[in-house]
Design goal:
The complex is a heterodimer of chains A (96) and B (268).
Chain A lengths: L5 E9 L5 E7 L2 E6 L11 E5 L2 E6 L1 H13 L15 H4 L5
Antiparallel strand pairs in A: 1-2, 1-4, 2-3, 4-5
Chain B lengths: L8 H15 L7 H11 L8 H5 L5 H12 L7 H8 L3 H5 L2 H16 L18 H8 L12 H9 L2 E8 L3 E6 L2 E3 L4 E3 L3 E6 L1 E2 L2 E2 L9 E5 L2 E6 L1 H22 L2 H6 L3 H5 L1
Antiparallel strand pairs in B: 1-2, 1-8, 2-5, 3-4, 6-7, 8-9
Helix pairs in contact in B: 1-2, 1-5, 4-5, 4-7, 8-10
Classes of the chains: A alpha+beta (96), B alpha+beta (268).
Chain lengths: 96, 268
Amino acid sequence: MCLGIPGRIVRRWVQDDGAILAEADFAGELRTVRLNYLPDLQVGDFTIVHAGFALTKLDPDEAARTTALMRDVGLLGPEGDEPLVVPADWIDRPAP
Amino acid sequence: MSGAISQPRGHRLFARYACAPNARGYCGPPAVAGAGLEAVACGHGAGVDVPSLAARFSGAWPYQCLIADLAGIADPLDERVVRAYWTGNALTREINGRQLGELLLERFASQAGHYWSHLTPGLLDEVTPTHAFHVFGVYPWTRLLATGRDEPLHVLDSCRIRSAEVLEVRPELVLVRARALTWDGRQLELAEPADEEVTWRSARGAFTGPLREGACVALHWGHICDELGERAGSELDHWTELQIETTNQRLDPSARAAHGRDVAAWLR
């Protein structure tokens, strides 16, 4: 997930300490976000998150436009693109 | 075999600075890909495609592309470009901040709507070609300081790159002396140096070589991500202080008069 990708809230709950959390779908990647600043966000709402906090609410059209624009500028892969995965054997491959 | 030369120096430098926020899920590609950055930061990951991963960082990548363009350097991951953006160097001084800001507006902000909603023409006076500007100027958090909540100051202080002096290397943590960001309700400032413990190693190793007492290091999200020489440390402090000063002029217009100079004009 990168800064600015709209996420769609798929689940929300309240912790024992009162913190309001949600799970949101960011272009196929699920992340937990905090709703301290936008506690009224509900399942199905779109939001932009920064440093783990939902800070902006978007309507569905804005969310779709923003996601499309981010794909246009290369910050997201094309829709339906395979996730960017680095094979484990690449990660640990030593220098030649 | 050492993996220290498994990637170009600029690629490893980028990984060192980008890794901590990526590991927290705040920016960049998904964690499964971000693990490759951690490997590169630790001197491994010979097969990791750093340019593809770097291009997913919505904050750093546009700046590095523009800095490279303005400097006539072909590779946005050239070590000079990466250093210029994250901590500042001689190249940073050559870049006109306002010009860079105008290009950001032209190429990125206008295209991406909410992506950088706070980057407007009104912010151009605040632009330095650094990560510090992105944190203090473009990120939303300075605008949330007035809420009185703890998170804005914490995020700003963690997300900026901080310089620190190593006091003691312990098995798991390192004791450093660094200046924390403070907010008095009107202005941001750096506090007097204070001691704190920070992380150094991750599961894959450390981003730096062995640390010695007195070394100047860079911190990102509470993790030692780089060892800075004296000059690089001074550059980081310079750009940080300059950015705070310019940002204060937005947060508290009386700061302009109090400092006796228009920093934005100086930057131009």
